[in-house]
Specification:
The protein has about 150 residues and is of the alpha+beta class. The protein has four helices and seven strands, in the order E-H-H-E-E-E-E-E-E-H-H. A seven-stranded antiparallel beta sheet has the order 1-7-6-5-4-3-2.
Length: about 150
Amino acid sequence: MDWCHYRFRSVWRLAAPPHAVYAVLERADEYPRWWPQVREVVPVDDTTGAARFRSLLPYDIVVTARALRRDPGARVLEIGLGGDLEGWARWTLAPDGTGTRVLYEQEVEVRARLLRALAVPGRPLFRANHALMMRGGRRGIAARLRPV
């Protein structure tokens, strides 16, 4: 087993139509406004940005994200990741009654030296950290999509 390799999968059910959810998710530069653990997103160009995340653990993860797929018709957003994490992440949206089922998938290799050194003892904490981050994201986007 490669202790520095992670696959994550989260499902959010949101009470907003897919086009509204997609419109929020495609604006990664605005994530810090509604997702507490996304501390900063700085656009580099039209398809690339630098992002900084911090959840429960007192450690910032810094990545460069590059758009790989932006398909509003298929309701898919996919990025390539480099920096502290190397790999990819993808949002896939589907109608769910009057709302939206959001599938988040991520496959990454940890590159940050400290996180690699703590790979074995830290793995349960890193997974819990990610789960808390995703919970914060779901709550944040649900609040952002809520009618005023």
